[in-house]
TrEMBL record, chain A:
Location within or outside the cell: Cell outer membrane
Domain OmpA-like: 59-173
SUPFAM superfamilies, A to Z: OmpA-like
Protein name, UniProt field: Peptidoglycan-associated lipoprotein
Key word Phosphoprotein present: no
CDD domains linked: OmpA_C-like (cd07185)
Statement: the UniProt record of this protein carries the keyword Signal: yes
Keyword vocabulary terms for this entry: Cell outer membrane, Lipoprotein, Membrane, Palmitate, Signal
Organism of this sequence: Pontiella sulfatireligans
Automatic annotation (TrEMBL), chain B:
Phylogenetic placement of the source organism: Bacteria, Pseudomonadati, Kiritimatiellota, Kiritimatiellia, Kiritimatiellales
Family statement drawn from the similarity comment of this UniProt entry: Belongs to the TolB family.
Name this protein carries in UniProt: Dipeptidyl-peptidase 5
InterPro entries per record: 6-blade_b-propeller_TolB-like, WD40
Pfam families noted in UniProt: PD40
Domain of life: Bacteria
Organism whose genome encodes this protein: Pontiella sulfatireligans
Length: 173, 395
C-alpha cells in the first residue's frame, strides 16, 4: 500500500471515528448543559486522540526556531484560518521525515487564574495537534505541553502583549 | 446567607466589662472584644518578647479582638519565660467583670518554635472566649515568582517563618494542602512536562502524557482530583491514591476544565469550565453524572475554594477587575467582598471560616492579602522582591 493511500485511509478512519463520536454525543447526559454552545468555542478538528504513555518517556525539548507560533483569540483554542498555514508547514516538514516529532507548547495571556490557564494552554496545544493529525502527521510523534501563563513571550500588560502571548509554539525534536 | 447572618448575629453576643452591652462584631471596626494583656509578665529574653508580640498580633488579626492596655472585657494574665532553649508560657483568661475564668493553660516548647506556640495560644484564647475556631496556627503554601521561574514556599498565615520548599529552578503552579496539613500537592515542570507532585515524595502523583495539573486531595485523603489531557482534551479526573485507578468525571470536548476543589464532606467537586463560552464554576458529584453550573454573574469566574463554612469563595471578573466573591451552593446567594481598585484573585478560606487569603495585583505586582468577609479591614501579609501568588491556606 502506498504511503498516500495509507494516509487517505487513515484520515477516513479518523473522520469516521469523529462522526461516530459526535453521533454518540447526543446521548451524553451533558448535552443539555453544553449543547447550546456548539460551535462557539475552539473545536478541535478531530479531537480526543489520546496521548500515550508517561510524560517521562518523551523528549522534553526541541528546536523552536524552525516555525512560527500560532496565535489565538482570548479564551479560545480555535485554530483560525489565517494561522492554519503555519500548522501546514510543520505537517509538511514532519511528513517528509525531517525531524522525529514535535512538542506543541500551549501558552495563554496573564488574564484568568494561573491554574485554569494550564488547561487553556493545553487545549490550544491540542487544537494544533489535532490539526496536524488531520494533515496526516502520526499522532504518536506529537506531544503537547501547556505552560499556561507562566512563560509569556511579551512582558507587557496590554492587548498588544496579550495577543503575542496567546500562542502555540512548535518545538521540533 | 443564613449561616453568615447567624455568624454575625448569634455567636458574637458577648458581654462586655459593663456586663450589659451586646457586642455586634459584624459592624466595621466596632464591637470588637477588648482584650487586655498588660498584666502578662514576660522575661527579658527575646523569645518571650516574641511570644507576647506575636500573641497580640494574632489576637488583633483574628478580627474578634482589640488588644488594649486599659479596660477591656477580657483579661489575660500569666507569664512567659525562657530557660535556656526551652520556653514556658502560662496563660489565664478571665472575663474582666465577673472574674470568670475561661482558660487556664501552660505551654512549653523549644524557644525556636516560639511563634507557633504563640499562634496556638491565640487560637485557644479565641476559642475559650468566643467558641470559634481560629486561624493563627494555619500555614500558607504559595508560589514565589522571580524572573521566569517560580518556587513553592510555605509560611505561617501571618507571613512569617517562610521556607522555600522547591529548589528546582522550574515552574510551580497551584499548590494545595493534604488534609493532614503535612504535605503540599502542586504542579511542577521539573520533569520537563507539567506533572502533579506531593512534597516529601520524589515520584510524581501523576505524570501521564499531556497535562497533569491542579491536584486536590479529598478530605479523606484517599483520592486526587486533577486535570489531565491524556484522552485528548483537558478534563476532570479522580485518581485513587491507593490503587492508582482513574475515573474520568467530565466529558466536554468543546471546553476545558480546571481548578478542582472538594466539598467539606468530600462528596462533590467544584471546578472551572469554559463550556458555556466563558470560564464559570460548576459542581459535580464525585461519582460523576451531570454537572451543575454554579456561577452566572461576572464575565468569568475562576479559582473556587469550598470552605468548611459551606461557602465557595472564587474570583470573578466584574467591571474589568477581578474581585473575590462567595456563594452558597445550595441557595446560589452571592456576596462580593469589598475591596479596592486592585485585582484580587485565587482566594483560599482560612480555617476560621471568616477570613480569605488571596493574591492582590496592583501595578503588575502581586502580593498576598488577608480579607475579612465580616468587613474588618484587609491586611497585607506578604509582599515585595518578586511576585507572590496562588496562596493556599492549610485546613
Amino acid at each position: 500500500m502506498s504511503n498516500k493511500v495509507f494516509k487517505f485511509m487513515f484520515l477516513m478512519v479518523l473522520a469516521g471515528t469523529t462522526a461516530f463520536m459526535s453521533g454518540c454525543k447526543s446521548k451524553n447526559p451533558n448535552t443539555g448543559l453544553y449543547g447550546s454552545d456548539a460551535g462557539l468555542y475552539g473545536d478541535p478538528l478531530l479531537g480526543d486522540v489520546p496521548l500515550e504513555g508517561d510524560s517521562g518517556d518523551w523528549p522534553a525539548d526541541g528546536d523552536r526556531s524552525l516555525f512560527d507560533a500560532v496565535y489565538f483569540a482570548y479564551d479560545s483554542s480555535q485554530v483560525n484560518p489565517e494561522e492554519a498555514g503555519k500548522c501546514e508547514a510543520v505537517a509538511k516538514h514532519l511528513n517528509k521525515g525531517k525531524g522525529q516529532g514535535v512538542i506543541v507548547e500551549g501558552h495563554t495571556d496573564e488574564r484568568g487564574s494561573h491554574d485554569y490557564n494550564l488547561a487553556l494552554g493545553e487545549r490550544r496545544a491540542l487544537a494544533v495537534r489535532d490539526y496536524l493529525i488531520s494533515l496526516g502527521v502520526d499522532p504518536s510523534v506529537i506531544q503537547t505541553k501547556s505552560y499556561g501563563e507562566e512563560m509569556p513571550d511579551s512582558a507587557g500588560h496590554d492587548e498588544g502583549a496579550w495577543r503575542l502571548n496567546r500562542r502555540s509554539v512548535f518545538a521540533i525534536y | 446567607m443564613n449561616r453568615l447572618l447567624l455568624l454575625t448575629g448569634a455567636c458574637l453576643l458577648v458581654l462586655t466589662a459593663s456586663g450589659q452591652r451586646v457586642i455586634d462584631i459584624g459592624k466595621k471596626g466596632e464591637g470588637k472584644i477588648g482584650i487586655n494583656l498588660s498584666s502578662f509578665k514576660t522575661g527579658s529574653d527575646s523569645a518571650s518578647h516574641t511570644f507576647i508580640s506575636v500573641l497580640k498580633a494574632d489576637l488583633n488579626r483574628s478580627g474578634y479582638f482589640s488588644v488594649t492596655s486599659s479596660g477591656g472585657g477580657i483579661n489575660v494574665v500569666g507569664s512567659c519565660t525562657s530557660g535556656g532553649s526551652q520556653l514556658r508560657a502560662d496563660c489565664q483568661v478571665y472575663k474582666s467583670a465577673s472574674r470568670q475564668r475561661l482558660l487556664g493553660k501552660s505551654y512549653s516548647a523549644p524557644a525556636s518554635s516560639v511563634r507557633s506556640l504563640a499562634h496556638k495560644a491565640a487560637d485557644e484564647i479565641l476559642y475559650a472566649v468566643t467558641g470559634k475556631k481560629g486561624m493563627a496556627s494555619a500555614k500558607l503554601a504559595l508560589v514565589y515568582k522571580k524572573g521566569r521561574g517560580s518556587e513553592l514556599v510555605v509560611c505561617d498565615i501571618d507571613g512569617h517563618n517562610k521556607r522555600q520548599i522547591t529548589k528546582d529552578r522550574s515552574i510551580v503552579v497551584g499548590p494545595g494542602w493534604s488534609p493532614d496539613r503535612k504535605n503540599v500537592v502542586y504542579t511542577s515542570y521539573k520533569g520537563g512536562y507539567p506533572n502533579v507532585y506531593l512534597t516529601g515524595r520524589a515520584k510524581p502523583l501523576s505524570s501521564h502524557a499531556g497535562l497533569n495539573a491542579s491536584g486536590a486531595i479529598s478530605p479523606d485523603g484517599k483520592s486526587l482530583a486533577l486535570i489531565m489531557s491524556r484522552d485528548g482534551n483537558p478534563e476532570l479526573y479522580l485518581k485513587s491514591l491507593r490503587t492508582g485507578l482513574l475515573k474520568r468525571l467530565t466529558e466536554t470536548r468543546r471546553g476545558d476544565e480546571g481548578s478542582p476543589c472538594w466539598s467539606p464532606d468530600g462528596n462533590h467537586i467544584a471546578y472551572v469550565s469554559n463550556t458555556s463560552g466563558r470560564a464559570q464554576i460548576y459542581i459535580i458529584s464525585k461519582k460523576g453524572g451531570t454537572p451543575m453550573r454554579l456561577t452566572t454573574s461576572g464575565s468569568e469566574s475562576f479559582s473556587p475554594d469550598w470552605g468548611m463554612n459551606g461557602y465557595i469563595a472564587f474570583s470573578s471578573r466584574i467591571g474589568g477587575r477581578y474581585r473575590i466573591a462567595m456563594i452558597n451552593p445550595a441557595t446560589k446567594n452571592l456576596k462580593l467582598v469589598e475591596t479596592d481598585y486592585a485585582d484580587y484573585e485565587d482566594p483560599s478560606w482560612a480555617p476560621d471560616g471568616r477570613h480569605i487569603v488571596c493574591s492582590r495585583t496592583s501595578q503588575y505586582r502581586s502580593s498576598i492579602y488577608l480579607l475579612d468577609t465580616l468587613k474588618d479591614s484587609h491586611v497585607a501579609l506578604i509582599s515585595g522582591s518578586g511576585d507572590w501568588v496562588s496562596p493556599a491556606c492549610s485546613p
